[in-house]
Amino acid sequence: MKLKVKGRWVVGSRIGTCLAFVLLVGGGEIVGSQLSSSSTPRQVVEEWFEVFPEKIELAADLTTMAFREGVSKEEWIATRGPYLRNLQLKYVRVKIAHEKMVGEEAHVIVHAHIVTLMGDQPQDELYVLLKSPEGRWIIDQVEVYTETFNMGP
Length: 153
What we know:
There is one protein chain. The chain has helices at 14-23, 41-51, 56-60, 73-87; strands spanning 4-6, 9-11, 90-102, 105-116, 119-131, 137-147. The chain is globular, with a radius of gyration of 15 Å. The protein starts with a strand and ends in a 6-residue tail after the last strand. The chain is α+β, with helices and mostly antiparallel strands. It is built from four helices and six strands. It has a single domain (10-150), classed as Nuclear Transport Factor 2, Chain: A, CATH 3.10.450.50. The protein has a six-stranded antiparallel sheet, covered by helices on one side.
């Protein structure tokens, strides 16, 4: 497995890689979401954690087509839903550490702790959001960072 090193952090790990794989396959416009066009990027990420992964159909509404790697919401839900259920992914702690907006792009950094069938993992997540043509913030990308000392042999 090829890992991308960022300082003393590594993108990936057994759990982080699974989550990164799951998260980097998203997308679309906000249709069924309760968020309005005046919602901040932070509010979108907060809603993401309220619905992902248990209510993946609502989570899909918070993502871009690029996040879903070009597949429809329906296909993303049909393929990622079973994978997430089998992985038993749960966020047990989430703290938004930083939010920065520059024009039509926003970055939200989250300190998270996840639990899966493979164990538990503290990690930092960078959410990249874009402003849609309708003026709504939507998640376009998620990068997962885990500390190198959490890596096994």
